[in-house]
Structure prediction request, 251 residues.
Amino acid sequence: MRNSNRKQAFSLIELLVVIVVMAVLFSLAKMKIYDTSLIQAGNMVISHIRYTRELSANDNKFQYYPRDVTSAVERNRTKYWFKQWWHIKFTNMNDHIIYYIFSDQPTSAATTNFNNTAQSQFSELATNPLDGKYLIGASGAPNYPSKDKVVKQLDLTQYYGIHHIKLDGGYSSSSMPNNLGDRINILFDSRGNIYMSEGLRGDSEDTNPYDSQYRHPLLQEANISLCKDTQANECIVITIEPKTGMLRLNR
Prediction:
């Protein structure tokens, strides 16, 4: 009888251990499923921030003289060389959070040489070095390339379920509607220095590339939160270090 009782007691303990282990494994599996899309989105954004910085390092926009002094476009290209730095910009389109990489280009207009966006000028957009597709999460005429010519994953809402984006540190340029979060604009000069936001549209008063009123150097750690919900409860955070530009992903 004693041996029988001991065997039953031992079996009960085994059962409890199995239940606990299964509960732990289920929790881990659930957490992994939850985190996967956030981690994928965070890693993609980090790789594209690095790529934007690489484009800037290999594309010095400064030029001493216009290539053609009779061309208003070329004169503006020389005068406002710093407005052509490479950007990575997060914004909204049809209640989706998207982003794109671009270098603003001059026109011949007197006060709207730079419009701080790549709409309708596809030549301003960066392309994916692997397949040549435009690095933008929006598509459709007349303002954007066709769907088959863009990297669709840059639509963070459509592909990763991101419904809110937030930038800590007071660097955001403006808020998006419907509680989607902050519009974020990160740009780099040819030396790799990081700036948040960009100057005014047009050229009035914005003639100094290092004027912090229009172009804010990253002087302290910045955190970009990518969130599943508009209340920012389920998020992953991308941290950008000042000076070094080191990027890390925080769960």
The radius of gyration is 24 Å. The chain has a mean pLDDT of 83. The first helix runs from residue 2 to 57.
